[in-house]
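[INFO] parsing input record for EamA domain-containing membrane protein RarD
[DEBUG] input buffer:
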Amino acid sequence: MRLLSTSTLHALAAIALWASLAALGTALAHVPPFLLTGAALIIGSLPSWPLVLRDRRAWAVPPRTLALGIYGLFGFHFLLFIALRHAPPVEANLVNYLWPLGMVVLAPVLLPGTALRPLHVVAALLGFAGAAVAILGARGTGGATGFAWGFVPALGSAFIWASYSLWTKRVPAFPTSAIGAFGLVSGLLALLCHALLEPAASLSVRDWALVALCGLGPLGAAFFFWDRALKTGDARQIGILSYLTPLLSTTLLLVVTGRPLTGGIALAAAMIVSAAVMGSRAR
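[DEBUG] output buffer:
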């Protein structure tokens, strides 16, 4: 008997890859954000190229669907990388990962026929509280002592990804391979912005290796897994499950930045896990 559904396995695969995104973004903080976003998204689209070469319908989507894909992939990651440059990375990462909360709360608004149960509300609030505790706890280890404007793009990226994830269930059905088209167009747009708005940059071999890793993992394969999860699963349940993402991501980011695991972060982790378990029992 299978313990985990196919949609859950796809969601967990995406979550595992996304856990590395903030750490990679921090390691590449010296790379102009449009350049980083564009290069990584184009690399992330590469696995679907052979499919479209065999059958052009693999990328055939209406303009509205393509626009939604650009909104999600380009908008989310650009704002995230901006946030990581203008706010303490741990705190900005946690604000960004309010998108699971956004998926739960916005589901009944953006998806007709989807109900928000009391247990969903309690779980969402508990997850939000856990993120807030984590932010305050991280500040106690040498982080920001006041408001940083980088929290604004972090919050914006959270809203974009939550709304994009839900709206993909509102547009006409499209093949998962079309995610490659979303990434390619978004990447080219980002490179155009780099050419127009940012100074030229020279990347080292190490930089390109990290960009490629970023593209093939959290900015590539994760999108395909996520799309499959949304196509076959309940958006509310997937949103609750996604509370695991900030736990894994923040733990990795703390290791990379050399910051200790504080009591506040540990308490936040317990609260977010409890929210995930609580939300998984809501029907």
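[INFO] The mean pLDDT is 83.
[INFO] shutting down worker
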